[in-house]
Specification:
37% of the residues lie in helices and 16% in strands. By secondary structure, the chain is an alpha/beta fold. The strands form three sheets. Strands 4-10-9-8-7-5-6 form a seven-stranded mixed sheet, sandwiched between helices. The protein has a four-stranded mixed sheet with strand order 1-2-3-13.
């Protein structure tokens, strides 16, 4: 055990998770690669939990941060802030929400917490509909709407949460149905649920569940839900912390796969927009955003430095069509991984979109989740020079692959080869 690991254990909570038997200290990065304290180089297929969205040490972002820090680092939202206004204008124009307003936070957890505050205040209800297998953050309110027991450390809650079917296509009571039948069954379940409850404030849903193992419903499920929600006046919150900014390749926002009945009332975002800087936020219709009847500020949300980083990062992403790159390179990568998986009896499914790919592992010859295999592949991939993540529902048995969106075809192929070797070594 390293001296740094010992020091970490002496001052950190027991529940603060670390990857790997011998935890890794990452000292620097460039492009799609990072280096550890021993000088080992790794191809990064997890990007700081989907946060390093464009590239490590992206010169455009580094320059923007440096120049802003040389002027002023902090002022708070009590003063006019040009970078914050400029980024908000760009986010509003990309949001798809008419007459939208933006409130910046420091994390996705805080963004979801704010969205819950807005929805419950607007609807005068503390009842929230959430999806099974979901994850929305680590605050008291976000934990209370998280439908994944591994990340929900308390049953105490300021909210009444009711969990809805539909976030997981390949498991559960409706898995055997066709896509159309699956959507119809989930809608019928939602209708039945609402017949037994008081007025709910909102449905919050990830278009693709992140921590849950990159699971998703068929396209159009949330559009069908929207018809039911609208009849009851219930708001739709789309948690785009992991799916936003073009990561899925096919869409800029994950909700656009469910857009038939219009955009969400509220969108939350974070992670990739800052390319590693601490940015989160909420986009909402003006009447929803403005429903609070008390003052509020954000001390650190909208910091001039993080806003400058977000502006530079978003500009780079759009100018270099990284959404298109995610679609092209991600499409090739997922097909390559499916070909590899076809030769493995421990892979149940390879799923995902763009550069958001999950590999679900099971015990050979069964449909039983295999968290031990997931941990073993994680270790073997690291030995081969590749960093990946893991997640999943009832058990953490899904490998999570989410490289920076500038990933090249040769890098995708390199990562696939390492993963193939890791799967063989672990199997």
């Amino acid at each position: 055990m390293s001296s740094l690991h010992n020091r970490h254990l002496a001052v950190s909570p027991d529940w603060l998770a670390l990857y790997y038997r011998h935890p890794l200290e990452i000292t620097h990065g460039e492009g799609r690669h990072v280096w550890d304290a021993d000088g080992n180089r790794y191809l990064d297929f997890f990007g700081g939990i989907l946060t390093t969205m464009t590239a490590h040490a992206l010169p455009e972002v580094t320059k923007a941060v440096t120049e802003q820090a040389e002027r002023i680092i902090h002022s708070s939202t009590l003063y006019l802030n040009r970078p914050m206004v400029e980024l908000a204008e760009r986010v509003v124009s990309l949001s798809g929400i008419p007459d939208a307003r933006v409130f910046f936070t420091t994390s996705g957890t805080e963004a979801n917490d704010t969205a819950l505050l807005l929805a419950t205040a607007y609807r005068r209800s503390n009842q929230i509909l959430a999806m099974r297998n979901s994850y929305h953050g680590r605050s008291f309110s976000a934990v209370s709407i998280t439908g994944n027991h591994a990340w929900s450390p308390t049953a105490l809650s300021p909210l009444q949460t009711l969990y809805v079917h539909g976030g997981v296509r390949g498991r559960g009571p409706y898995a055997h149905l066709s896509d159309g039948e699956f959507i119809a069954a989930c809608v019928a379940d939602l209708e039945d649920l609402l017949g037994h409850t008081r007025d709910a404030a909102a449905l919050i849903a990830e278009p693709i569940q992140g921590v849950g193992g990159f699971t998703s419903p068929p396209d159009g499920l949330y559009a069908a839900f929207r018809e039911v929600l609208d009849r009851h006046g219930i708001l739709w919150i789309s948690d785009e912390v992991q799916t936003g900014w073009g990561r899925t390749g096919e869409h800029f926002w994950g909700w656009q796969a469910h857009a038939e009945n219009g955009p969400p009332d509220i969108v939350t975002f974070a992670k990739g927009i800052g390319n590693g800087m601490s940015i989160g936020g909420v986009i909402a219709r003006a009447d929803v955003m403005n429903c609070l009847d008390a003052n509020s500020i954000s001390t650190f949300g909208g910091s001039p430095v993080t806003m400058a980083a977000g502006l530079a990062n978003l500009g780079y992403l759009l100018e270099h069509d990284l959404q298109g790159n995610a679609r092209r390179v991600g499409g090739l990568l997922i097909e390559r991984l499916r070909a590899i998986a076809a030769g493995s009896d421990c892979v149940r499914e390879v799923r995902g979109r763009g550069l958001m790919i999950g590999i679900e592992l099971v015990k050979p010859g069964t449909d039983e989740a295999n968290p031990e295999a997931a941990s073993a592949v994680l270790e073997a991939a690291r030995e081969g020079g590749l960093l990946i993540g893991k997640g999943g529902g009832h058990n953490t048995s899904v490998l999570r692959i989410a490289p920076p969106l500038s990933l090249s075809i040769p890098e995708a192929e390199e990562g696939a080869v390492i993963l193939a070797d890791a799967l063989r070594a672990a199997g």
